[in-house]
Amino acid sequence: MRKLTLLDPNEQNSTPSPNGSVRRPLAYREEAFLQSPESRPLRILSEYLWPLAHFQEEKIQDTIVFFGSARIEETGPLCRYYEEARELARLVTEWSLSISHAANGSEPHRRFVVCSGGGPGIMEAANRGACEAGGKSVGLNIGLPFEQRPNAYITPELSFEFHYFFMRKFWFAYLARALVVFPGGFGTLDELMEILTLAQTKKLESKILIVLYGSAFWNEVINFQALINHGVISESDLNLFRFANSPQEGMAILTEGLTAYYLEPEKMLSYPSEETPEIARTRTP
Fold first, then answer.
1. Running DSSP on this structure, what letter comes out for residue 65?
2. Integer Cα distance of 195 and 200 in angstroms
3. How far apart are CA 147 and CA 96, in angstroms?
4. ∠ CA 35-149-28, rounded to 5°
5. CB count, 10 Å around CB of 138?
6. How would CATH label the architecture of 60-263?
7. What is the Cβ-side half-sphere exposure of residue 171, based on CA atoms within 13 angstroms?
8. In terms of DSSP H, where are the helices of 100-147?
């Protein structure tokens, strides 16, 4: 392990005591230590605990995650997907607000909150639709070399910045009851395949709805039948997802599935030492 450099007694963070010795700052106030390789586990843990605390405070019970390309803009060749993601997120949020209710006069638990990757394109469209419906939405942004910025429609107290891709992906799945996957590139494919693998291998105890939006795009980009023909997936694996080609069709799939699987008596979002949200539970061999 690399030896940590001690503070010079003359540095601002050190405090001389009356007898001339140096009193070091508390470890969690030592910026050099927190940025060191030795503190990487602390930084990873903070990207778990910081969002969790905010989700608890905002009473976010579960989410519907919208995936899709950051390159699809409001105008351009694929602009219809921007507008349709915006509309579907608006419909989801209006429905969410109608079924989220308070218990014993307390603040309501928020069900099926729209969640995106926090950036432009389809992510912006999803947060924008939720905002226009008068609801809250989550943005899980990632720090990238080309400086992806959080879009302006995320609820400020639910906007998070991640350094570690795997922690961001963890939070996509942790509270998700459904994924709506719009056309996208490498990142979208990566996120889709990861959740499909968890569902296919039955590693998750709970049902997660997966909606592929835009059947023409997805059937061109991924030859699902070829995977069956080559014997690398089963024909039944195609039942892990459904296609939608309009906001109304997507909304019908979501309301039907989420009503059947998840509209039970509400539970509080638990603390780390208590019950784990169902989507985060995994099966052991």
1. E
2. 8
3. 32
4. 20
5. 30
6. 3-Layer(aba) Sandwich (3.40)
7. 33
8. 122-132
| Cα gap 151→119, rounded to integer Å | 5
The pLDDT tens digits of the residues spanning 204-229 come to 777 899 999 999 999 999 999 999 99
User: Other C-beta atoms within 10 Å of 21: how many?
Assistant: 10
User: Tens digit of pLDDT for each residue in 156-172?
Assistant: 999 999 998 999 999 99
Domain ranges of the chain: 60-263
Q: What is the dihedral of CA 117, 120, 122, 128, to 10 degrees?
A: 90
Query: The tokens 């005591």 sit on which residue?
Result: 17
Q: Which residues on neighbouring strands pair with residue 114, listed in sequence order? A: 64, 137
What CA–CA distance (Å, rounded) separates 70 from 139? Answer: 13
- Burial level of 128, CB count in 10 A (0-12/13-18/19+)? buried
Which of 100, 285, 102 lies closest to 201 in space, CA to CA? 285
Report the amino acid identity of residue 30.
E
